[in-house]
Amino acid sequence: MKRVFLIVLDSFGIGYLPDADKFGDMGANTLKSLTKSDKLQIPNLIKCGLGNIDGVDCIEKTSTPCAVFGRCMEKSMGKDTTVGHWEIAGIVSKKPLPTYPNGFPEEVIDKFKRLSGRGVICNLPYSGTEVIKDYGAEQEKTGKLIVYTSADSVFQIAANEDIIPLEELYGYCKTAREMLKGEHGVGRVIARPFIKRNGEYVRTANRRDFSLEPSEKTILDAISHQGLSVISVGKINDIFAGMGITEHYPTHSNNEGIEKTLELLDMDFCGLAFINLVDFDMLYGHRNDTNGYAMALSYFDKHLPKIISKLKKDDLLIITADHGCDPGDESTDHTREHIPLLIIKDGIEPKNLGTLDSYTAIGHTVADYLEINYKNNENSILKRLN
C-alpha cells in the first residue's frame, strides 16, 4: 500500500533565483536570515542533508545525509502560495495572477458593494496587522468591510467577529470569489476576522482562503480519479478550491498540522497526504519576525524524527516549500527563491539531485510513485531515486 506524505513548509526559501531581480528579490535568502537567530536549532534537517543542497552555505553539511536532497527553481511567473502549490501539483502558470499596488479599481469595489450590500473601507495594499489597527474602530462603528490587498494576488476582507459573524464574513468572501474571475481573477480571496482584546484589535485563527480554481487538472485530480486518497491538511483544500481532494482537515497552527500528520501516519490509506504548515509564512515571514520563524522551524525539526519513525516500508516522505518569505528582507512580501527538496524512503540511498528546473518535478514524481499517469510524468525523478 503506497502512501506519499508531501509536507510544504510554507515560504521556506533557501536562496534567490537567477531571475529574482525581475521580482525585486536579489539577495533574498530565508534560510540565511534564520541562521542569524540564536533560536534556530535544526539538527535533524541538517542530518537529512539540508546544508548539502547546492547553493546552501549558511548551515553545516553532513558527511552522512539520511535523505535524497536537492533544490527546485520556479518556472511559473509568480512567487505566491497559489502559483507555488499549483506548480508543485503540475501546473506552470505562464502569466502572473493580477495584483493591485494601488488598490482595486472603482468598478470592482462598486460591484462588490452592490453584491454584498455592505460598504467598503481602505482598499489599499496593507499589512494585515496594521490595517485592523488603522481601520478596526471604523469597521466596528460603521459595519463596513475592510477590503485590502498586498503584493500578492489577493482580495482580503477583514471584519470584527463580534460585529459580523464568521459565516456571514465567509459568505461575503464567496460573493467576492464568484465575482473575481477573468481579468480580475485574483489567486485568493481571504477572510481575515479579528476581535478586540484588551483595547487592541487582533486577528483570530479563523482565517479562510477562497482560491481560484486551478486552470487545468492537477496531480490531485489524477490521483483521486483513480480511486486513491488525496488527503489535505491545513490550507491545501482552500488552495486547490477542493478540486481533486477526497478528505480534508483544516488546521489553525503548525502544531495542529504536525499532530494531524502524525495521526495520518497511523492510518491506513493508499494515495497522497498533502500537508501545508502555514505559520512560517503567515505569522513570521510576513511580519519580519526572524526569531519567531526560527522557533517554528525548530519545532518542526524537533518532531521530524517522530514523523520519520512512523514511515512504513512503502511510504515516501517529501519535504519542500512553495516560495520564500525572507524575514530579514526590507519588505514583508514573498521572495523569489529556490525551494528545498528532501526525500526519505526505506531503501533509497541518499544522493544529491542538484538543481531541478521546475517544482513540477515534485508532483510528477508523486504521480509516478503511485503509478498514476499525469502528463506522462515527464519531469519525474523517481528513476533517479532508485
Could you explain how this protein is built, in words?
By secondary structure, the protein is of the alpha/beta class. It folds into two domains: 3-94 and 214-385, Alkaline Phosphatase, subunit A (3-Layer(aba) Sandwich); 106-210, 2-Layer Sandwich (Alpha-Beta Plaits). It is built from 13 helices and 14 strands. It has helices at 30-34, 43-48, 81-88, 106-116, 128-142, 166-179, 219-225, 236-239, 254-265, 279-285, 290-309, 360-369, 382-385; strands spanning 3-9, 68-72, 120-125, 145-149, 154-160, 188-197, 200-203, 208-211, 229-233, 247-249, 271-277, 315-320, 339-344, 352-356. The strands form two sheets. An eight-stranded mixed β-sheet has the order 10-9-11-1-12-13-2-14, sandwiched between helices. Strands 3, 4, 5, 6, 7 and 8 form a six-stranded mixed β-sheet that branches. The longest helix is centred in the last third of the chain and has 20 residues, at 290-309. It is globular. 50% of the residues are buried.
Helix/strand order: EHHEHHEHEEHEEEHEHEHEHHEEEHH
- The number of distinct β-strands equals 14
CATH superfamily (homologous) name of the largest domain: Alkaline Phosphatase, subunit A
> What is the CATH third-level topology name of the largest domain?
Alkaline Phosphatase, subunit A
